[in-house]
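chain and backbone:
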Amino acid sequence: MKRMIALFLTLALLAGLAGCAGTTVVVGNCTCPPEAHEPVEAPTAAPDDLPPEGMLKTGLAILPSISKSASATADANGKADFDVTVVAVTVDENGVIHDCVIDSVAVAAEIGAAGNPVDIAPGSTTTAANSVQVLSKKEKGYDYGMVASGSKYEWFEQAAALAQFAEGKTVEQVKGGYSDDVDLATSASIYLGGYVAGIEAAAANAKSLGAEAGHELKMAVCASLETSVKDAGGMAQLNLDAVALTVSGEVITSCTIDSLQAAVEFDGTGAVTTDLTAVPRTKNQLGFDYGMVAYNASKIGLEWFQQTENFCAYVSGKTAEAVASIAVSPEEKPTDVDLAAECSISIGGFQQLIAKAFE
């Protein structure tokens, strides 16, 4: 009976997410057009990629969208719109999700009306870059306002229910709405839009980094919106860093970090010049295309994703306090000889990110 009650509560929470940006939830027969749900193929793990028995793989995914951005018109301002889903998971050798954490960042910058100088910092005439901190939906808590708008549950409560729904299932079972106790396919078809895509991508990204069954999964997101204005146009850019880590007691057992720089540019008439159909890629997805090595910006000949992997390996086995105490230069680059040989980029933001995950 308790399981059935929990199931019905989960279904109620899932249905409540229908109004969330970037999410489509349907209970019953889905009448959405086929293009409304874009599948993400989960690669079949090669035998060598499977974790040892009792070990877990840790995965992180950042799924951004800028498609809702719009040019200014003679009658209304436009916007640079950013909607990002962030998901962390741990999965076992059978692809079963042990833990899942979901968060999201949604923010928009205003674009001035057509025929007027572009202004994405309303009330400001500066041409210098402006940067403001952006809270995630989970961080906003009840201030996000879904309950105030009539929803029974707030966003962070519904996100927690979605994460709990995924735990104990494979990605395919999550996509099919399958439960070990009740076959939901007989009574409901559940489409979770970008959140299921995020779970699938995080599982596909998962690697054996040291996590074991019973270790706690933590995730943190730090985001800021940077805007620049000039006579010939301007830009709004969302900068987002995310970490997924597991801990045993106070000790980090696995860690993975990724970063996103998503920009929307526009001209002096307020018209968006960025291709809004293109999905911004994270630094890990860019890989060698990020260009640190190609443009001689890496003093040690390693690309951003390689240096970040080295940093994550270095902090595994350490406590949050030990990570915070890693010595850095005024530019926040590591001064420890061993770490500096493998990671020469600024790590101050990474230290803050890990500290935030432990809050």
